[in-house]
Design a protein that fits this description.
heterodimer; A: mainly alpha; two-stranded antiparallel sheet; globular; B: mainly alpha; two-stranded antiparallel ribbon; 2 strands; about 0% strand
Amino acid sequence: MARPRGGVQTAYGNDDMLQQVANGLTIGVVYALIAAGLTLVYGVLRVLHFAHGGVYMVAAYVALAVILALGGGFWPALALAIVVAGALGVAIERVVYRPLRGASPIAPLIAGAGVYLMLEDIFRRLGGPYTRPFPADLAGTVVLGPLQLTAKQALVLVASLVGLGLLAYLIQRTKLGLAMQAVAQDATTAASLGIPVDRVVALSFFVGSVLAGLAGVLVGLYFNAVEPTMGALPGMKAFAVVVLGGLGSVAGAVVAALLLGVVEALVTGYLDLPLGRDAVAFVLLIAALLFRPQGLLGGQVEKV
Amino acid sequence: MLGLDNYMLSVGILAGIWVLLALGLNVITGYAGQVSLGHAAFYAFGAYTTAILTTNLGWPWIVTMPLAIVVAAALGVVLGLPSLRLRDDFLAIVTLGLGLVTQSLALYLPFTGGSLGIGGIPYPALGPLRFDTPAYFAMVVVLVIVGIALSAWLARSWVGLGWRALRDDELAARAMGINVTALKVLAFAVGAGYAGLAGALLAHHLGFIIAYNFGFAESITALAMIVVGGLGTVRGPVVGALLLALAPEVFRPLADYRMTIYGALVAAVIVLQPQGLLGERAWLVQRWRWRRG
């Protein structure tokens, strides 16, 4: 289960703690993208969306296909991949989750896991069961004071922060964001006030899946690896992050994701635990919940 | 036995193990309403208990199998404690984490064989009589029947009533003087005990176990089985487990599309019958009742 690869593509200029933190933040922002999407759809629909990791994986394959088969560049590939991811998210909500509104919360969870299995198997057939390299012409390093970032790291950081910034703007400054907050607080009241709940839910899935798609493509680029099972662990870790941040709080999820990225990097770099790197997220979660059952920022910020 | 070859009997043994896993999870999630995504942790504890005791200490399986149930049940008490503080979705994610941490520990600790697993687990024998596959199959069938009977009895006992009250409305149950704490812990202990037995049966059947046998896939499959069959009933987990355990065999001719069909089947059944195929308000059950007047 544990395949520590975090350090593979990183810069080794100054091998000190600051560098480890920077490497951790690079992964942290990617976790933040996945978790923000997950918490967004949890907010409006109260479903634990187990196919989210599948959407992330599909986007990476779409980008790969655009680059390899159509000879496109990175940016067109990214653009098409996130649109496909968004559409896939909307389709999953429409076909699987919408008929299950009002059913026991375990039902959508299992149905989502079924969809995930299906996606993984479909792309194992389409793309082969092995890891495929992600071709990208991106070499060199960026020096920021005492820090050295690879060009890929810099791209991941900037693109993720842009994505998160746009999400913050959308939630806090637009009518759609306001509607999402309203639906998250009370769907029935929101509907009675004329908010088209179904459309808001669908758009939340679109936005959340676009973020997952962005994360998938960035991870494929960063680790130079795309594989059918790549969505499983990030998908599960994102759940830990979402709960750690206080289920439904986007700001909390982002904070928890950055924290997880840094702690993972430091634990792998400095501690010798009888655990895989991938278990760190859940050890952190369980420890945190013992002291703060409502999550890091739960109960203090808006619940979208 | 019944003209079945060893391969089919082996498939039957694994299906029986799944039925026990599903029945156990059904006690926790179906009866008591506590969502668990970490059922594989109990399964792992049962398997590792009997594997370590038989291979390292040379204890007989007739002692270590019941011990596996006890150890798993004790772990159930410990891992059930979060359910006292956390509800629903929080509990689901925490149990998911506990399952992953357990698997990760099994993969890294020295006495669990780490990533090499534990091999050479003896096939059961009584004195000079070594169980062959048909005998083992028969034993699994008997244990499954006992497991079903125990589940049915529990559902009708006062404990089962308490669980149902707890599941439907925890606050009201507490107000009525029901000991919610004890009932939750008991549900986890019983459910984990079933999984411990399943794990021990798996260990002695395969003769080799490794942490990868006890991952999230196993936890979610057990949950899928009880939801597809019908949460909270006895027939549901049994039918769901048999259906999903045997489905990959049925679809074997379509080997390339096997998991695609499997995933689609699970999703489709739940979308069309959120109550499960044989749940209280399922189409099949209502039709059956209607025809019988």
